Amino acid sequence: MWQEDNNAIHRCENLNVTPIESISLEEGDVLCAIKKLKCNYTCGPDGLPAIFFKRLGSTLVVPLTVVFKQLLSVSYVPNVWKKAIITPVHKKGLLQTALIIDVYL
Question: Is the residue at 2 inside a domain?
Answer without folding.
Answer: no
